[in-house]
Structure formats: C-alpha cells, structure tokens
Write a structure and sequence with these properties.
Length: 120
Amino acid sequence: MKKIFLVIIFIFSITTLSAQVNRSIGAGQYENKKKNKNKQIDLVEILKDKLNLDGFQEAIVRNLINDNQAITKEIIESTAYSDIEKRDKISKIGDEFNAEIKKSLSPEQIEKYDKLISKK
C-alpha cells in the first residue's frame, strides 16, 4: 500500500512539472514583441518634439511609419529579390517616405526635417 501511494505521488509530481515546461519552438520564442512598437513610438515622439507636429501631422507620420515598416518587412522577408534589389527597393521606399512626410509639413518644419535627416 505504501509503495502504491509513493508511485501515485511520483506520477502526479511528474505530470505537474511537465505541464509547466514551455514547448515553443522557433526563432521568435525569445523575441520581445513590444520592442518594434516602442521604436516606432520613439521615432514619432522624436519627430513630434523636434518638428513641433500638431495632432494631424502626428497621425500622418504615425501612419506613414506603420505602412513603411510593413512594406519594408515584406521586402526583407521576400526570397524573390536579391540583396541588391532589396536594398534598392528599400532605398526607393525611404525616398518616397521622406517625400510624403514633407507634404504634410510647413516650410520651417521641412528645414528642420532635412537637418535631422542629414545628421542621420
């Protein structure tokens, strides 16, 4: 009777331990999902502070950044392009991104934006 009781306790302890093991597999298991979002928010906040963006301009910049990041991620993950083609496409997207942002800025803000880009 004592042996059966010990076997039951042993089996019960093994099953509870195995239920606590994280069995996720893949490169993303240790990735912090909030990290990219914080970078995007930081970029918007930096531009908001440096360029004195109003709420409408801030919303435009935030949407442009989201769209730009999504398109860039698709290009980077794509296997249809060579590395040179990827670099060229991303560079073209960056130029379009800068042009779109400048459309919503005042002339003074454009000057400040150009200075920020040249420092980068």
